[in-house]
Amino acid sequence: MNNSGLAVEVSKDRNGTDQILLRNPRGASAKVSLHGGQVLSWRTDRGEELLFTSSKAIFKPPYAVRGGIPICFPQFGQRGSLEQHGFARNRTWIIDENPPPLHANDACGKAYIDLLLKPSEDDLKIWPHSFEFRLRVNLTADGNLSLISRIRNINCKPFSFSIAYHTYFSISDISEVRVEGLETLDYLDNLYQRERFTEQGDALTFESEVDRVYLGSRDAIAIFDHERKRTFFIKKEGLPDVGVWNPWEKKSKAMVDFGDEEYKQMLCVNGAAVEKPITLKPGWRGLANGIVFPNRRLTYRLAWKMVF
Ligand code: BG6
Domains of the chain by range and CATH? Predict the structure, then answer.
């Protein structure tokens, strides 16, 4: 812990994988695992967990952890040559001891950790594009959480990828929440072979399985959780699409790493670039995303931002 009360502690999880606990002076915290470079926990200064993680999650590479904020890269979904949601989420990342500098605002007053993923030889066999994926996870003195990602193309040819920040929000009850900001948008419905529909309702509510990618959404979205009196405000930049997923009852029972009833306590709302993959020319590109911050009591914000 330094003088400002910001702390960064590295410990081992039960599998011997490093995990990093970021803490701020008021007691808010975030836990990040090198397994998937995944944020597994984000707690307010009152100790309330804001992210869902399944009680049946498997914390052992190569499985992806069911919960938190898995990073789906270099593919989101099943379309493409790779396994669903790409491989970044089930690889072991390393701590990046010497990251290229970021803007001073991205470090000042924050407890943070820099992580790095490079493809293994086996990864290159299935996705022949060399890259460095740098992820900074920040926890501010106010308890804000932000994820800043930078992807470097180290081939001599461009490559394209899709990406999503697969954010599992912890909610009181799926039947009680509503999502605003996606109305009137077109979406691809994974339950209907990605057929394109237009959202008709004023707000999105949930009474059965939902598995959609909303296209070209505006940058402000809100998830209202009435029972918990909690609102997540989502502000994003640069990531045009939004995945919305809840498996509901039947699919929950089919997933080995998910409790039969847990669909009631989670909702995934994911900032993504899916419909139009991102193409990176050789060299650096900035990709900043996933700023999560409690604004005031019982109100939380999540912003995704992408910068080129
Ligand atoms: C969602 C997809 O983003 O992730 C769903 O749209 C999928 O189709 C879900 O079932 C979970 O995927 P996975 O690979 O983590 O089980």
Answer: 7-306 (2.70.98.10)
